[in-house]
Design goal:
Chain lengths: 110, 121
C-alpha cells in the first residue's frame, strides 16, 4: 500500500488560515469517510484532531476543520497560533482493511 | 480515560526478534469496545501503521510487514504485544501502541507515549 501524499511543509503567520492536503486513491481516501488527522509536536505522541473527515473530538479547538473532495482530504487551521506549529499526519482506512498514513506535513508559524 | 504504556528492550540485535508490550489502563482490553494497534516512526520520518487487533484475536497486518509481525493479547494482564522478527537497522523507530473505538477502529484515539527501539549490534 502506498502512503497518502501530503505536502512536506506549509507555513503561515499568526491569525492566517492554512490548508494541508492529503491525496490518496479511490481505494482509501476517496472510497470511505474514514480520514483522520493527527498533530504531533516534537518528541510527543500524535494527537487526534479530526476523525471521519470532518469531526472534532471533544477538547479540540474549532479552529481545526476537515473536508474531503474526491480522493483528496484537507485539514484547515484558521486563526493560526504559535502553538499550532507541529507535524500533521492524515490516515485512512483502505479496501484491504488496513490503515495507511500520509507522509506528514511540517507546519511552521512564521 | 484510557491510557497506554509501551514497554520492552530499547536495544535489539540485527536478525533477532523485537518484542514490545502495551499495558492498558482505564479500560478493559476484553470489553469489546476497543481495537488495539501498533504504529512506528523511524527517527525523523513519518508514521507507519504496523497492525491492529480485536480482543477476540482478529488481526490485520501491514502487508509490507506481515511476514515478520505477530500481535497478541493477554486479557488477564490487560496487555497486548508486538513481535517483529528478523529485524534490521531499518526497523529502528519509536514504537507506539494505540487504541480505537470498535465503531471506528481506524481512528486512533488513544496513544502511548512511545518507546524507542534501536537495532544495532
Amino acid at each position: 500500500q502506498s502512503a497518502l501524499t501530503q505536502p512536506a511543509s506549509v507555513s503561515g503567520t499568526p491569525g492566517q488560515s492554512i490548508t494541508i492536503s492529503c491525496t490518496g486513491t479511490s481505494s482509501d481516501v476517496g472510497g470511505y469517510n474514514s480520514v483522520s488527522w493527527y498533530q504531533q509536536h516534537p518528541g510527543k505522541a500524535p494527537k487526534l484532531m479530526i476523525y471521519e473527515v470532518s469531526n472534532r473530538p471533544s477538547g479540540v479547538s474549532n479552529r481545526f476543520s476537515g473536508s474531503k473532495s474526491g480522493n483528496t482530504a484537507s485539514l484547515t487551521i484558521s486563526g493560526l497560533q504559535a502553538e499550532d506549529e507541529a507535524d500533521y499526519y492524515c490516515n485512512s482506512y483502505t479496501t484491504s482493511s488496513t490503515v495507511v498514513f500520509g507522509g506528514g506535513t511540517k507546519l511552521t508559524v512564521l | 480515560q484510557v491510557q497506554l504504556q509501551e514497554s520492552g528492550p530499547g536495544l535489539v540485535k540485527p536478525s533477532q526478534t523485537l518484542s514490545l508490550t502495551c499495558t492498558v489502563s482505564g479500560g478493559s482490553i476484553s470489553s469489546g469496545d476497543y481495537y488495539w494497534s501498533w504504529i512506528r516512526q523511524p527517527p525523523g520520518k513519518g508514521l507507519e501503521w504496523i497492525a491492529y487487533m480485536y480482543y477476540s484475536g482478529s488481526t490485520y497486518y501491514n502487508p509490507s510487514l506481515k511476514s515478520r509481525v505477530t500481535i497478541s493479547v493477554d486479557t488477564s494482564k490487560n496487555q497486548f504485544s508486538l513481535k517483529l522478527g528478523s529485524v534490521t537497522a531499518a526497523d529502528t523507530a519509536v514504537y507506539y501502541c494505540a487504541g480505537s473505538y470498535s465503531s471506528s477502529w481506524y481512528t486512533l484515539v488513544y496513544w502511548g507515549q512511545g518507546t524507542l527501539v534501536t537495532v544495532s549490534s
